[in-house]
Specification:
The protein is of the alpha+beta class. The chain contains 2 helices and 12 strands. Helix content is about 20%, strand content about 30%. Strand 5 and strand 6 form a beta hairpin. The chain is elongated, with a radius of gyration of 30 Å. InterPro entries: Pilus_assmbl_Flp-typ_CpaB (IPR017592), RcpC_dom (IPR031571).
């Protein structure tokens, strides 16, 4: 009887402890849910804000709104403070867009709506539509650059330096020149026709000095092709191919 009573008491205690644990967990979960729904003050654009707008001029261009804390990024702005007073918007801010501190940059790094990353320079290359993925490459795209050139002495991988010659007795080679470049802008040399034709455009990319030298030299001695990179694109530098190795000969 004593053993039976002990077992009954133990079972009751376990049940109480289990219930208490469930209660505390649910209460904690409710607290987390409530915290996630707490309203916080954020700034949104009342109208379109052009690129290059000074931070100290934003007061009349933004308004405060309440949003759930769980849906607001950590760098969201709740007020126009002195930290952005000397900065400018790095790109256009759409009406109703949430303002974050990542939208601002030093005024000196902005040129006609282009924000040049720190330590880099902007280089422009003229292209046809077929040299920039059929016109799919736009501002913000990540690209790889391939160079097709005439080979010096008809062999090896050294550019001859006289442009792309297509005479049958000459040998040409295509190699990866650069990859992972950020496109700062794509500007049509002529506005697209009403039928939607995509033609010539100049592509501006952000590069370090050494890559700028390669890009400019490649443009002067061969023909460049911009390839649009996806999130899982696999690009590996190598010797490329030439007329002799095109079909694995």
């Amino acid at each position: 009887m004593k053993n039976r009573a002990f077992i009954i008491i133990l079972a009751v205690l376990l049940a109480v402890c289990g219930s208490a644990g469930v209660f505390l967990y649910v209460r904690s979960a409710d607290s987390r849910a409530i915290a996630g729904q707490q309203a916080v003050t954020v700034l949104v654009a009342k109208d379109r804000i052009p690129a290059g707008t000074a931070g100290d001029k934003l007061a009349d261009l933004v308004e405060k709104q309440q949003m759930p804390k769980s849906s607001v990024p950590e760098n969201a702005m709740s007020s126009v403070d002195s930290s952005i007073a000397s900065l400018v918007t790095s790109s256009e801010v759409a009406e109703g867009q949430l303002l974050t501190k990542t939208l601002f940059t030093e005024a000196a790094s902005l040129a006609k709506g282009i924000s040049i990353p720190d330590g880099m320079i902007a280089v422009t290359v003229p292209t046809e539509a077929w040299q920039r993925a059929g016109g799919l490459i736009q501002k913000g795209s990540k690209v790889a650059v391939f160079d097709t050139f005439t080979v010096m002495d008809g062999k090896g991988n050294t550019p001859a330096g006289d442009g792309l010659s297509k005479q049958y007795e000459r040998n040409q080679s295509t190699r990866l020149l650069l990859t992972g470049l950020e496109v700062l802008s794509v500007v049509d040399e002529k506005k697209a026709a009403e039928d939607g034709d995509v033609g010539k455009a100049i592509v501006t990319v952000a590069v370090k000095q050494a890559d700028a030298e390669k890009l400019i030299h490649g443009q002067q001695t061969g023909t460049l092709y911009f390839a649009l990179l996806g999130g899982k694109s696999e690009i590996t530098p190598g010797n490329g191919i030439d007329n002799r190795s095109l079909f694995g000969n």
